Each structure stands twice: as structure tokens, then as C-alpha cells.
């Protein structure tokens, strides 16, 4: 039996978590968040693969690879690419598994240009404004959905 796999993608500037605007994004680093998720996934019998990139094409390539490598779900915080990347949306539209979009902050309480996400039209769920707990909730939902499938 193959271990179920989830891909966690993080977009531009999220490598600066913990130091970049902690009043908005919190004090946890991306490594802190990913380590918590790895533990959560391992306890549920899942494999977690994580990638952060400041380069749109690298994120797109990861989605393309996930189509073929047995990945069942993607948790994505596209960051600023949420509001700009039709290319990332197109890539996600080629992925047959679950997609959950996560934002640390509530994008709807921020600047008007952040209120629209191209990615949301593909996402099976969107979690915004829960900080790092949003990632944990996304993983819980993916695991629960797979158990009920």
C-alpha cells in the first residue's frame, strides 16, 4: 500500500515568515509551520512534501509533477501570486486531486487588490485569517476527506 502524499506549496516572500511584518503574518517561521505539518501528516500516515519558491515557474513545475507522482492533494499559499497568476491557476486546473488555498492573513480585510484570488476558483476550500492554524486545518480536511472517500 502506498503512503498517501500531500504537497504544500508556498509562494513568494513566505521564506521571510517570522521577520516580515509579524503583526500581519505572525512570528512563526515557514520551517516552524512545515515541521508542525510534517508531524501532523506522519501521525496520520501521510507523506508531506513542501516547497517554497519566489519563482512562479517553479511552483507551476511542482504542480505538474504532482499530477504524475501520486500526490493526492495540494495545500497552497500562493501569496501574491493569488492576485496575479493565471498561469498558476491553469496548472492547478490540470491537477485532479484536492486543492486547498491557505492565507495566513484575512485577505478580505486588507488592501482591495488582495480581495480577489485567481486560485480560489480552482480550490476545493479556502482558509484565510487563521495564521498557521489554517495550514493545519487544511491538512485535517484533506486527511478526513480521504478517509471518507
From TrEMBL:
UniProt binding sites for substrate: 77, 83, 90, 104-105, 114
A GO BP annotation: chorismate biosynthetic process
EC number annotated for this UniProt entry: 4.2.1.10
Top-level lineage group: Bacteria
Broadest EC class assigned to this enzyme: lyase
Transmembrane residue ranges: none
PROSITE patterns in alphabetical order: DEHYDROQUINASE_II (PS01029)
The reaction(s) this protein catalyses: 3-dehydroquinate = 3-dehydroshikimate + H2O
SUPFAM superfamilies recorded: Type II 3-dehydroquinate dehydratase (SSF52304)
InterPro entries assigned: DHquinase_II (IPR001874), DHquinase_II_CS (IPR018509), DHquinase_II_sf (IPR036441)
GO molecular function: 3-dehydroquinate dehydratase activity
Pfam families in alphabetical order: DHquinase_II
Positions marked as site (Transition state stabilizer): 20
Quaternary assembly: Homododecamer.
HAMAP family, per database record: AroQ
NCBIfam families: aroQ (TIGR01088), PRK05395.1-1 (NF003804), PRK05395.1-2 (NF003805), PRK05395.1-3 (NF003806), PRK05395.1-4 (NF003807)
Entry function: Catalyzes a trans-dehydration via an enolate intermediate.
Family: Belongs to the type-II 3-dehydroquinase family.
Name listed for the protein in its UniProt record: 3-dehydroquinate dehydratase
Organism listed in the record: Vreelandella nanhaiensis
Amino acid at each position: 500500500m502506498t503512503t498517501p502524499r500531500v504537497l504544500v506549496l508556498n509562494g513568494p516572500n513566505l521564506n521571510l515568515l517570522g521577520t516580515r511584518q509579524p503583526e500581519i503574518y505572525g512570528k512563526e517561521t515557514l520551517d516552524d509551520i512545515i515541521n508542525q505539518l510534517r508531524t501532523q501528516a506522519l501521525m496520520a500516515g501521510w507523506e508531506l512534501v513542501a516547497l517554497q519558491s519566489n519563482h512562479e515557474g517553479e511552483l507551476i513545475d511542482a504542480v505538474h509533477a504532482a499530477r504524475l507522482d501520486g500526490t493526492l492533494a495540494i495545500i497552497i499559499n500562493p501569496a501574491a501570486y493569488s492576485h496575479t497568476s493565471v498561469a498558476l491557476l491553469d496548472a492547478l486546473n490540470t491537477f485532479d486531486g484536492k486543492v486547498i488555498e491557505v492565507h495566513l492573513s484575512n485577505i478580505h480585510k486588507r488592501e482591495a487588490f488582495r480581495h480577489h484570488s485567481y486560485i480560489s476558483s480552482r480550490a476545493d476550500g479556502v482558509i484565510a485569517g487563521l495564521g498557521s492554524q489554517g495550514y493545519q486545518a487544511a491538512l485535517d480536511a484533506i486527511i478526513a476527506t480521504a478517509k471518507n472517500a
